[in-house]
Amino acid sequence: MRDLADSRVALFLPCYIDQLAPRVGFATLAVLRGVGVAAEFPRDQTCCGQPLANAGCAAEARPLAERMLRIFADFDYVVCPSGSCTAMVRHRFADLLGPAAAALADRTFELCEFLIEVAGVDTFSGRFPHRVGLHHGCHGLRDLHIGTCSERAEPAADPVGRLLAGIDGLELVGLRRVDECCGFGGGFSVEERGVSAMMGRDRLDDHRAAGAEVIASIDMSCLLHLEGLARREGAGVRLMHVAEILAAASAGGEG
Amino acid sequence: MSHGERADRFTADRARAAWHDAALWHVRERRDAAARSVPEWEALRDLAADIKARTLANLAGHLEAFERNATSRGAVVHWAADASAHNRIVLELLRARGATRVVKSKSMLTEECGLNPFLERHGLEIVDTDLGERIVQLRDEPPSHIVLPAIHLRKEEVGELFHAHLGTEAGLADPTLLTAAARVHLREKFLHAEAGITGVNFAIAETGGLVICTNEGNADLGTALPPLHIACMGIEKVVPSLADLAVFVRLLARSATGQPITAYTSHFHGPRPGGELHIVIVDNGRSDLLGRAEHARALACIRCGACLNTCPVYRRSGGHSYEAVIPGPIGSILAPVRDPERHRSLPYACTMCGSCTNVCPVKIDLHDQLLRLRTEIVTAGHLPGRRRASRLASLLLRSPALYAATGRVARRLGRLLPGLAKRIAAPWTSSRGLPDLPKKTFREQISSSEKDLSHR
Ligand code: SF4
At which of B240, B256, B288 does a domain end? Predict the structure, then answer.
């Protein structure tokens, strides 16, 4: 494991986590502390602008991207518990800001990426005695390439799964469709209600059929959508961010 | 009506949508297996993308070479600037030979040009001979998929259709028997046809030959019996050489259906003895597309349908929900590029999952293009409401104080005026429950424990 004591690390917290699931922010800080990183939370951050850029409003997203560049300018690493928001910074900021975006793009990591690639964590210790279904968020998988998507004729890789699989008592369940989209998609979830809900229900069914007690993901936005659907149906499955599982595991078992 | 509203009608029939999704997912699984059976699959895709890029960079040159070589083999080449020129050329060729009964194999181009209704208006009989195409033709509706035109129909529905049109027994829904009935019906159309129209999968510049891929052999029968063969192709169908062709032939059927190769991959080099071969090369907006740097790569499409099959939205919304000649991810680029106002909702029929980009055998940057198209559509002023909302959101999010205050107001609104909050949240709650709102946001909690991050 690499010593990062001298590095300045910032937590980039997606706005919907700040507002709707603050516990994931604290879990992220706890996980980072566990690998010797005291992350700071720059208070000026709000939203990276992804919802606006995805809506097609690049001009309105641009000032938000510029703010991000300023806010995180002084950090060695920027860590974000979301594949989607990390992909926004790493890939989409260049569309908005041109080459200036590279400075931040190169230093921004999704949490699991950071743990594996920067901190050099191989496996995560601790205990979490549950059957877990891992939902691969599309942006983490296909934009950040955290793992291989099932349609590529390439050797399979699943670093997040490997991280979880090392945890004592945690059993990863096998899904029929290992990485199909959950149907959230930001504005898509309300503009394409029928398809969005059907996609989400299909994911829930797949996880339940595989015997998952917990559905985990590196993306809280997928989980909030799935949780909303599960709630409506009264489906007995818990939805947890990977950071919450890692934090719960190292804290000794029950999340 | 937006794609979302049309899609809602499709998903309202949960059983049909689930069955449609499962049928196409199965095709994708077959495609995945076929791709994995070729060790150099991903390299092959790179190669194909490269060949397409080179070809499109000198498209005029390759087309002229094709014309020269095809002509020297005895074919007659016609150039059509748009759909109406294409239709006129075809009509004149048919009229000059007194042909009134025409068979046609699958061609998305003639669909795009509206050739069938045009010829029918002029009193000709035109019969689609691909089984799926014939089914949708009898139902008087467009194909819902570019490779599997009738994938939206169940066998029982085909049974009813054939009972009404081909006189099969009422209630007959056995696919083998239905196919046999269609075969008898089409055989008679083939025998009496005076001309055969086909699409084109590839036109080889180097040899002047055409390649047509089918699973039913209907293009072969439709061109072997009547004396006149009219082949219709878009300008993007040309490939430089036979060696290049080999790359695409390896990719096409595997990407489309998971077959190693289509049952028939027929080469037409000049007319058959005693027959005539006319090739109509159509632009119809393609050179405009070629001139648009952001979208030109969409011209590389070989119409395999893989992006449709992998698209979680297409699978659950059905091809007709796109109201475009070509549905799915590639259609959601081609249609709005041509008419952004009319097709403005199509680029939004996408979660940005990116699977299409990963299956496309010619590596078109499909989901990136869809995202860029959204910006183009908004910038052109076709979605003013969205723009206004985004302006407001952008202003709020630029100020940490306003952002925090808005969050607080929303929370309070939820508590004090649950009725109003419910109405605002209705698009979300139509199928989902609301999350339990935490009392305090992360930033509120962390400010009360600034010095002690371990506190929660
Ligand atoms: S865009 Fe690519 S995947 Fe889609 S039909 Fe065309 S070639 Fe096939």
Answer: B288
Residue B374 forms part of a structural domain: no
Residue nearest atom 6 of ligand 1, based on CA coordinates: B301
Q: What is the CA radius of gyration of chain A?
A: 17
B357: chain A residues, CB-CB within 8 Å: 142
Judge residue B22's burial from the number of C-beta atoms within 10 Å of its C-beta, 0-12 exposed, 13-18 middle, 19 or more buried: exposed
Give percent of chain A with pLDDT exceeding 70.
Answer: 99
For residue B116, give the 3-state DSSP assignment.
helix
Residue B43 falls within a domain, yes or no? yes
Digit-coded pLDDT (tens) for B303-356: 999 999 999 999 999 999 999 999 999 999 999 999 999 999 999 999 999 999
CATH code (residue B197) = 3.40.50.10420
ipTM value: 0.96
A58/B contact by beta carbon, under 8 A: yes
| Measured distance CA(B373)–CA(B387) in Å, rounded | 15
Tell whether B207 is covered by a domain: yes
Last residue of a domain, one of B259, B288, B317: B288
CA distance A177 to chain B (A): 9
Of A59, A177, A225, Cβ closest to residue B432: A225
Count of residues in chain A: 255
| pLDDT tens profile B411-432 | 888 777 777 777 788 888 888 9
DSSP three-state, residue B198: strand
Inter-chain CB proximity A57 and B375 less than 8 Å = yes
**DSSP secondary structure of B252-276:** HHHHHTS-SS-SEEEEE-SPPTT-E
Run of H or E residues at B75? none
Same domain, yes or no: B15 and B148: yes
E strands in B255-400: 264-268, 276-282
Q: Which architecture does CATH list for A131-251?
A: 3-Layer(aba) Sandwich (3.40)
- Please report the pLDDT score of residue A85 as a whole number: 98
Q: Are B186 and B132 in contact (CB under 8 A)?
A: no
Q: Are the beta carbons of B203 and B238 closer than 8 angstroms?
A: yes
Q: How many beta carbons lie within 10 A of that of residue A148, not counting itself? A: 18
Measured distance CA(B207)–CA(B4) in Å, rounded: 46
Cα-flanking dihedrals φ and ψ of residue B150, to 5°?
-115, 25
Concatenated DSSP letters of chain A: ----TTS-EEE---HHHHHH-HHHHHHHHHHHHHTT---B--TT----SHHHHHTT-HHHHHHHHHHHHHHTTT-SEEEES-HHHHHIIIIIHHHHHGGGGHHHHTTEEEHHHIIIIIS------SB--SEEEEE--HIIIIIS-SS--TTSSS----HHHHHHHTSBT-EEPPPSSTT---S-TTTHHHHTHHHHHHHHHHHHHHHHHTT-SEEEES-HHHHHHHHHHHHHHT---EEEEHHHHHHHHHHTS--
Query: Do the domain assignments include residue B435?
Result: yes
pTM (predicted TM-score) = 0.96
Place of tokens 């604290």: A26
Report the pLDDT value the prediction gives residue B448, as an integer from 0 to 100. Answer: 59
Residue with tokens 């299956």: B359
A226-245 residue pLDDT tens = 999 999 888 789 999 999 99
User: Phi and psi (nearest 5°) for B285?
Assistant: 90, -10
The domain of B163 spans: 3-288
Tokens of B182: 């269609």
What does the block give as tokens for A135? 């939902």
Domain boundaries, chain A: 9-118, 131-251
**pLDDT (mean) for B75-94:** 98
- Ligand 1 binding pocket mutation candidate from B52, B106, B362 (most atoms within 8 A of CB): B362
Q: Which of B302, B358, B369 to mutate to test the pocket of ligand 1 (most atoms within 8 A of CB)?
A: B302
- The CA radius of gyration of chain B, in Å to the nearest whole number, is 26
Could you tell me how many residues make up chain B?
Answer: 456
Residue identified by tokens 């709102």 is: B437
Q: Say what the pLDDT of residue A255 is.
A: 47
